[in-house]
Specification:
The complex is a heterodimer. By secondary structure, chain A is of the alpha/beta class. Chain A has a single domain, classed as Thiamin diphosphate (ThDP)-binding fold, Pyr/PP domains (Rossmann fold, 3-Layer(aba) Sandwich). Chain A contains 11 helices and 7 strands. The termini of chain A are far apart. The N terminus of chain A is likely disordered. Chain B is of the alpha/beta class. Chain B has 2 domains: 188 residues, Thiamin diphosphate (ThDP)-binding fold, Pyr/PP domains (Rossmann fold, 3-Layer(aba) Sandwich); 129 residues, 3-Layer(aba) Sandwich (Rossmann fold), CATH 3.40.50.920. Helix content of chain B is 37%, strand content 19%. Chain B has 12 helices and 14 strands. The radius of gyration of chain B is 19 Å and the shape is globular. Chain B starts with a strand and ends with a helix. The chains are: A alpha/beta, B alpha/beta. At the A-B interface, helix 5 and helix 6 of A face helix 3, helix 4 and helix 5 of B. Bound molecules: thiamine diphosphate.
Chain lengths: 340, 328
């Protein structure tokens, strides 16, 4: 996977004096492990007939957590999309909260069991409620960015989406608007090369999404999504620009979709088996683990301990969520308008 | 009190609310430098600056999307769709996003904003500057839909829409923009509550429920019927969602006869909802079939004066329809 930089206008940043520490990295790594363990458990529960529908972040986890780690949850705004389970964890959602949403329980903090899991929202965390529609969060993020620019407090808005979403008119409208008004927005494309069954070459002409930034007069970067440090550096630079009033940036993280699109899809029906087998070996988690070990920030023992702790957390989260009450039928008509 | 046209009333409402509350801002195509293609935002940019009165790119989905983002951050955007016909590129943002913010977040987020658009025909605007779009939006829980027909109503209801905690689609009958001048109150005295119909003319024999441009047409038809000793009560809904069922039902229970008059094409128009609801509620009081008087089911209003005339309801057509209900 190429980790080329496509810059329109500015020179690439020097390798990041990022301030990343062992503590930050271990916390990020734990979020990645948590996302994976939750995903494993959700598939078990799905096969057991307990969970209806899953969209998996498998293959995207490292890119998502690296991006959020470069930002400031609590200060910044996050318009996430349905594959962003690892990003949501990095924004502060707990495994139990995500399980409450998987089981569509009343206490699901995003929507009280109204939306399918993956439509994250929490006002106090700055995670802006999304929908299942592909693309509309992009101009919304531009509007949030404009508001943040007016407020002038240095906060920014991060918005993520797949490469399929970049074909939507809303991608053009949103990026154009944010670029025109130098809104503090980071457009983060998780390019897994497939939009359900439609491959990248039927979605994007040319090498990828990052090149499109040039048309809007903003920087576009392509990074390897399994390289925590590269993604972090790209997002940190975009954040620096945003906070300095230099406007939005577009980042394309190249990732692999290590699962079918959702549990309603079976990618073996439309993908080359050799390519699939090949991709199965491109799990970003072993690479992150290796990178941390190489830096001396992780040992086998700590890794095992983290995985054990995460497993126990997921056990507790599952038990608690499964036992939690469903929404009361009488709440069906609530929150249509302010007065109800 | 000053005499103002409907479009000036809109402009005054915007001016007063922007002066009152620094969170209120205006965005849309040509709203700034030009002051709007109908001059509904005239002078606002000069007064409040190019940020609070923002000329957007020509892209309706992002106008609605950006407005949503501003609302989520605590601003109160009033977005203009240059013509209601061109709100459709923003339909997804309005229906799937803005309308559902509160519901889908279980009350954690809200999206108070106003989307204004000139609506309706009779101005030689042809297919793409004449459409009546209210039924599309009135169908959507989470939205409020307002459609005033007098300058004072336009001012009072727009001010109330800007202060409303939920998203409001505010449709302005463009044929009435400069049709009449009326005296009107200023400031708080101008405010009118959403969801209240106005009894525009008192009558005993027949209830005619309408809104928008057809209010004046229906009143004129009612005057003609008065000469035939048919006394028509005319109700102007003013707000379509939520609509004032109480006032309407009360009138139908009194008169026993109901016609609903609307400018949109007949099938699935908002008047069909009014007719159905009142037929159900007032069945025991009815002496005649609930009747709709609406425009023909063609895709939109044509350009040719002959065809435009053939499309539009006028006092003759409305009077004829009302007469039939009265004599049934
Ligand atoms: C407007 C819209 N059209 C179609 C869909 C159905 N749909 C859901 S996800 C998806 C593919 C999206 O692909 P991409 O944007 O690349 O993201 P990925 O799922 O691969 O992460 C489609 C077609 C939708 N949700 N919204």
């Amino acid at each position: 996977m190429a980790s080329g930089l496509v810059w329109s206008g500015r020179m690439p940043p020097s390798p990041d004096p990022s301030g990343l520490t062992q503590e930050i990295l271990l916390r990020a790594y734990a979020s990645v492990l948590r996302a994976r363990a939750l995903d494993d458990r959700r598939f078990v529960l799905n096969r057991a007939g307990k969970l209806a529908f899953i969209i998996s972040p498998r293959g995207h986890e490292v890119a998502q957590v690296a991006a959020i780690t470069a930002l400031e949850p609590g200060r910044d705004r996050f318009c996430l999309y349905y594959r962003n389970f690892a990003a949501a964890l990095a924004c502060g959602f707990t495994p139990e909260e995500l399980m409450l949403s998987a089981f569509a329980r009343a206490a699901d903090p995003s929507s009280g069991g109204r939306q399918t899991p993956g439509n994250f929202g929490s006002r106090r965390r700055g995670v802006v409620i999304g929908s299942s529609t592909v693309g509309p969060q992009i101009p919304k993020a531009a509007g949030i960015g404009l508001a943040l620019k007016w407020k002038g407090e240095g906060a920014l808005c991060y918005v993520s989406f797949g490469e399929g979403a970049t074909s939507q008119g809303d991608f053009h409208e949103g990026v154009n608007f944010a670029a025109l008004h130098r809104c503090p927005v980071i457009f983060f494309c998780e390019n897994n090369h497939w939009a359900i069954s439609v491959p990248q070459e039927l979605q994007v002409a040319g090498p990828g999404v990052a090149e499109r930034a040039a048309g809007y007069g903003i920087p576009g970067t392509r990074v390897a999504g399994d390289d925590f440090f590269a993604v972090h550096a790209a997002v940190a630079e975009a954040a620096r620009r945003a906070r300095a009033g230099e406007g939005p940036s577009l980042i394309e993280a190249q990732v692999y979709r290590l699962q079918s699109h959702s549990t309603d899809d079976d990618q073996r029906a439309y993908r080359d088996p050799v390519e699939l087998a090949n991709e199965a070996g491109k799990d970003p988690i072993p690479k992150m683990r290796q990178d941390l070990i190489a830096r001396g920030w992780l040992t086998d023992e700590v890794d095992e301990q983290l995985r054990r702790e995460v497993g126990e957390e997921v056990d507790r989260a599952t038990e608690a969520a499964e036992a939690a009450p469903e929404p009361d039928a009488s709440t069906l008509t609530r929150h249509v308008y302010a007065d109800a | 009190m000053p005499e103002r046209t409907l479009v000036q009333a809109v402009r005054d409402a915007l001016f007063e609310e922007m002066a009152r509350d620094p969170r209120v801002c205006v965005l849309g195509e040509d709203v700034g430098r030009k002051g709007g293609v109908f001059k509904a935002t005239e002078g606002l940019q000069k007064q409040f600056g190019p940020e609070r009165v923002l000329d957007t790119p020509l892209a309706e989905s992002s106008i609605a999307g950006v407005a949503q983002g501003l609302a989520l951050e605590g601003f109160i955007p009033v977005a203009e769709m240059q013509f209601a016909d061109y709100s459709f590129p923003a339909f997804n943002q309005i229906v799937n996003e803005i309308a559902k913010v509160r519901y889908r977040s279980n009350g954690d987020f809200s999206c108070p904003l106003v989307i204004r658009a000139p609506t309706g025909g009779g101005v030689r605007g042809a297919l793409y500057h004449s459409q009546s779009v209210e039924a599309f939006y009135a169908h959507v829980p989470g939205l409020k839909v307002v459609l005033p027909s007098t300058p004072a109503d336009a001012k009072g209801l727009l001010k109330a829409s800007i202060r409303d905690p939920d998203p409001v689609i505010f449709l302005e009958p463009k044929k009435l923009y400069r049709a009449v001048r009326a005296e009107m109150a200023e400031g708080e005295a101008a405010l009118l509550p959403l969801g209240q119909a106005a009894v525009a003319r008192r009558g005993e024999h027949l209830t005619a429920i309408t809104y928008g441009y057809l209010r004046a047409v229906t009143i004129e038809a009612a005057e003609r019927l008065a000469a035939e000793d048919i006394s028509v009560e005319v109700i102007d809904l003013r707000t379509l969602r939520p609509w004032d069922m109480e006032t309407c039902a009360h009138s139908v229970e009194k008169t026993g006869r109901l016609a609903v008059i609307y400018e949109a094409n007949r099938t699935g128009g908002f008047g069909a909802e009014v007719a159905a609801e009142l037929a159900e509620r007032c069945f025991a009081s009815l002496d005649a079939p609930v009747t709709r008087i609406a425009s023909p089911d063609v895709p939109a209003m044509p350009f040719s004066p002959a065809l435009e005339h053939a499309f539009m309801l006028n006092p003759d057509r409305v009077a004829e329809g009302l007469r039939r209900v009265a004599r049934y």
